[in-house]
Design brief:
Distance between the termini: 59 Å
Number of strands: 11
Number of helices: 10
Largest sheet: 7 strands, mixed
CATH architecture of the largest domain: 3-Layer(aba) Sandwich
Number of domains: 2
Order of helices and strands: EEEHEHEHEHEHEHHEEEHHH
Helix content: 25-40%
Radius of gyration: 20 Å
Low-confidence stretches: none
CATH class of the largest domain: Alpha Beta
Bound molecules: S-adenosyl-L-homocysteine
CATH superfamily of the largest domain: Vaccinia Virus protein VP39
CATH topology of the largest domain: Rossmann fold
Strand order of the largest sheet: 6-5-4-7-8-11-9
Mean pLDDT: 96
Structural class: alpha/beta
Length: about 260
């Protein structure tokens, strides 16, 4: 199968997550979630044939996009004189230099194979991002925004919700893509303003390690997952529960107790 737009033709690469959006109403809805203003510092991930790019350009006169595919990068350069196109891997980008003092709004219909690495990159560099509006697999969107005591609640939910406000915006069916992916998608908004972070800087890395350890064996109690790493005696906390029963703020509290910050 080939996808052609103007003079550029590509055989969509599955490994690059090339599922192109075709529905202008959906595209408008995605961009509306970003509430763009002309002075926003925007980064688009994976512009492809510029479906989303075109709608961003309606609000912001100049912005940056990063595209790994050589042909598509060339396409964007030709079609969008006001887009600074970086040809390369989004995971290698330095967001601090792109932000240059003005936190970024990140948008994208992201390559699904690297959703998690992208999310963790944004998390690591959140000081340089105000918010991110991302189209991803619906299942991952549900995991990000999950509440305690659900099967979707896990490392991704706790890690993201501890540092950002996470909002599930809306579902996007497979039929609006070409080629159609095998799963449904959804739009998520992550707000990284410092006010949404529940974890202090000194606790950050310990907190992230704790969350991974707590969920290592989902069906085990906290006690069984954590006793290998921490001295739990004398700590006033109910370790007989499982990680999925703890709210994000209980995780933060537990981290403070274990690292003697409280
Ligand atoms: N935004 C377009 C295309 C989305 S498909 C649309 O909605 O129609 C995902 C896009 O991400 C493709 O253009 C793909 O080439 C690009 N891509 C894949 N891996 C990438 C990476 N590591 N860094 C930057 N772009 C990447």
């Amino acid at each position: 199968m080939k996808v052609k737009y103007k003079e550029t033709e590509v055989v969509p690469k599955k490994s690059f997550g090339q599922n192109f959006l075709t529905d202008d109403n959906i595209l408008r809805k995605i961009v509306a979630e970003a509430r763009l203003s002309p002075t926003d510092n925007v980064l688009e991930i994976g512009p492809g044939f510029g479906a989303l790019t075109k709608h961003i350009a309606a609000f912001v006169s100049r912005f940056t996009a990063v595209e790994l595919d050589k042909n598509l990068a060339q396409f964007i350069r030709t079609e969008f004189a006001n887009v600074d196109l970086i040809e390369g891997d989004v995971l290698d980008l330095s967001l601090v230099s792109l932000a240059n003092g003005k936190p970024l709004k990140v948008l994208g219909n992201i390559p699904y194979a690297i959703t998690s690495p992208i999310l963790f990159k944004l998390l690591d560099e959140r000081a340089h991002i105000s918010e991110a509006i991302l189209l991803m697999q619906e299942e991952v969107a549900r995991r990000l925004s999950a509440a305690p005591r659900t099967k979707e609640y896990g490392i991704l939910a706790v890690q993201l919700q501890a540092f950002a406000k996470v909002e599930y915006c809306f579902k996007v069916g497979k039929h609006v893509f070409k080629p159609q992916p095998t799963v449904n998608s959804a739009v998520v908004r992550l707000s990284f303003q410092p006010a949404f972070s529940h974890v202090s800087n000194i606790l950050e890395s310990s907190f992230r390690v704790l969350v991974r350890r707590a969920f290592a064996m989902r069906r085990k109690t906290l006690e069984n997952n954590l006793k290998l790493y921490y001295d739990l005696s004398g700590i006033d906390f109910n370790f007989k529960r499982r990680a999925e029963e703890l709210s994000v703020s209980e995780f933060v509290h537990l981290a403070e107790l274990l690292y003697h910050l409280r």
